[in-house]
């Protein structure tokens, strides 16, 4: 059996993913112990994160080598803006947060560092580099969603159940699988130096995913002495 490039990626981030599954934000989404204030904070930061993330798909669409792939990336941008972000708008409504307030969320340091890194790669690097930097976002959420769906009561939880249902859904899984396949296609024929660069992007953004959970759990912004 031939190993895929994404098997190598999986192996390189396995310790970080293991830690992510143990993080109290993630475990709290599953067993319902996550403090609501941390979740509200997360929703707002994630909303502005997704505005930038959707731009990654738009940039991927312009860099794609064929029409089918270009159209698929354009579809992912649309799905992010009007599908995934609708979840956030609905949660915000439940919390009494207006759409304007949601959109005007000031970015935390971690959120800004994460999206700035991805957008820099997207503007300066190849399509393969772009995909390697955005892949942890979709892939890790699907992994977390599948994990949490197995926790008793998680899918039905009155607050966090909707989140678990979205990220464990087949529909979301299909997006992750498509991106994984594209990553393998793009990695095909690349030399070791190029593959190592893709792995590095993947590792950095995987670590930033972990930091995003941690930042949200602690409702961290910028160091207080410079605020
Ligand atoms: C930070 C983050 N990473 C990933 C996802 C899943 N698209 C998300 N909504 N937010």
TrEMBL record:
<dbReference type="InterPro" id="IPR016084">
    <property type="entry name" value="Haem_Oase-like_multi-hlx"/>
</dbReference>
<protein>
    <recommendedName>
        <fullName>Aminopyrimidine aminohydrolase</fullName>
        <ecNumber>3.5.99.2</ecNumber>
    </recommendedName>
</protein>
<dbReference type="GO" id="GO:0009228">
    <property type="term" value="P:thiamine biosynthetic process"/>
</dbReference>
<dbReference type="Pfam" id="PF03070">
    <property type="entry name" value="TENA_THI-4"/>
</dbReference>
<dbReference type="InterPro" id="IPR050967">
    <property type="entry name" value="Thiamine_Salvage_TenA"/>
</dbReference>
<keyword id="KW-0784">Thiamine biosynthesis</keyword>
<dbReference type="InterPro" id="IPR027574">
    <property type="entry name" value="Thiaminase_II"/>
</dbReference>
<feature type="domain" description="Thiaminase-2/PQQC">
    <location>
        <begin position="10"/>
        <end position="218"/>
    </location>
</feature>
<dbReference type="GO" id="GO:0050334">
    <property type="term" value="F:thiaminase activity"/>
</dbReference>
<keyword id="KW-0378">Hydrolase</keyword>
<dbReference type="GO" id="GO:0005829">
    <property type="term" value="C:cytosol"/>
</dbReference>
<comment type="pathway">
    <text>Cofactor biosynthesis; thiamine diphosphate biosynthesis.</text>
</comment>
<comment type="function">
    <text>Catalyzes an amino-pyrimidine hydrolysis reaction at the C5' of the pyrimidine moiety of thiamine compounds, a reaction that is part of a thiamine salvage pathway.</text>
</comment>
<comment type="subunit">
    <text>Homotetramer.</text>
</comment>
<comment type="similarity">
    <text>Belongs to the TenA family.</text>
</comment>
<dbReference type="GO" id="GO:0009229">
    <property type="term" value="P:thiamine diphosphate biosynthetic process"/>
</dbReference>
<dbReference type="InterPro" id="IPR004305">
    <property type="entry name" value="Thiaminase-2/PQQC"/>
</dbReference>
């Amino acid at each position: 059996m031939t190993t895929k490039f994404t098997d190598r990626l999986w192996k390189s981030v396995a310790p970080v993913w293991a830690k992510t599954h143990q993080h109290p934000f993630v475990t709290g989404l599953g067993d319902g112990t996550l403090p609501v204030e941390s979740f509200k904070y997360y929703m707002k930061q994630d909303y502005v994160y997704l505005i930038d993330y959707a731009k990654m798909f738009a940039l991927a669409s312009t860099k794609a080598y064929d029409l089918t792939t270009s159209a698929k990336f354009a579809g992912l941008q649309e799905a992010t803006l009007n599908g995934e972000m609708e979840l956030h708008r609905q949660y915000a409504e439940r919390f009494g947060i207006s759409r304007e307030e949601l959109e005007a969320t000031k970015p935390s340091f971690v959120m800004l560092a994460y999206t700035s890194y991805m957008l820099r790669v997207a503007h300066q690097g190849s399509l393969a580099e772009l995909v390697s930097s955005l892949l942890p976002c979709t892939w890790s959420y699907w992994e977390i969603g599948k994990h949490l769906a197995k926790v008793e009561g998680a899918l039905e939880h009155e607050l966090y159940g909707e989140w678990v249902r979205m990220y464990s859904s087949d529909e979301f899984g299909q997006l992750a699988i498509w991106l994984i396949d594209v990553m393998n296609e793009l990695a095909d024929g690349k030399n070791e130096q190029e593959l190592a660069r893709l792995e590095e992007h993947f590792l950095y953004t995987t670590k930033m995913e972990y930091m995003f959970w941690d930042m949200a759990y602690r409702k961290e912004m910028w160091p207080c002495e410079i605020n």
